[in-house]
Input
Amino acid sequence: MPALYVEYPSWIDPLVVDFLPIRWYAVMYLVAFLIAYILFRYQCTHDGIIRMDADETQTFFFWGILCLLLFARIFSVLFYSDASYYITHPWMIFWPFRDGRFVGLPGMSYHGGVVGAIIGGIIFCRLHGRSLLRITDLAVAGIPLGYTFGRIGNFINAELYGRVTALPWGMVFPTAPGFPASEGWVRDIAERIGMSYQAGEILNLPRHPSQLYEALFEGIVLFLILWFLIRPWKLRRKLPDGTVFSFYLMGYGLFRFLIEYCRQPDADIGYVISLGNGSGNIAVFQSFLDISKGQVFCLIMIAAGAVLLASLLLAGRKDEGRRGKGSAAAGRAGRKKA
Output
């Protein structure tokens, strides 16, 4: 029986060069920020929604990226790490060395990054007298395309892999923990995919390449929706500021929520809502009723986007109503004078 799985490419090296502690992961995030910056500048010069020179744009991105990194790390520490350790060792939150080795910032939360970027935008808008929702619309229209490269960086790092799967494109990641062949479900999957094993062996089973799922749907697909559907719709219909941002929140939240079913929760956290059968084994998907912490944050994003969009449209209708009443009153006054 042929093997029905894919081996992680052996030629991929997370280090750009072997003698320097520079990872492709970091390079990919620099590419992501650069793409977001270029697309933001394009809109500033072509769409006519807002005019910002290069210096002001760089200041905006400085505040956004700074707060994004700070809150992405803080959220990771608070919600996905041993918070008690960092409370007693706060200097370790941003200390990039472990055991004498440079490791960067091990652990960043996307949802914390969103909160941080919004806070950075608020600071910039307060200092420069800009509209937060208007600037945010421009920023989020291009962010998903940059985000694609961030997830490719995760793939190169062989991290954030998904659950065990018997699908033919399941991938064996060298950094993933193995499972004892003594367990029935392990033997069942191994036999289904044609993986040979011996009694008592620890098997590294194939997993969903969930980083690539996210790069495709939360990155490329969401970018195409926002850039070519929602953004032109807003420009043509003169929709209120914040429309693109609201669709970004709902779109990313929905895609990420669904992909999380293919992505294994952190072993020390598991599910925050366990209503399905067999939820003790987080390595395989068993029920849509088992919800991870990341999915809870995604539901909050979806709800926030829906509430923002509804309030924007409602406020727009009220403004149209007031303008309509004002025009009618002006017409009556004109007829009286006539």
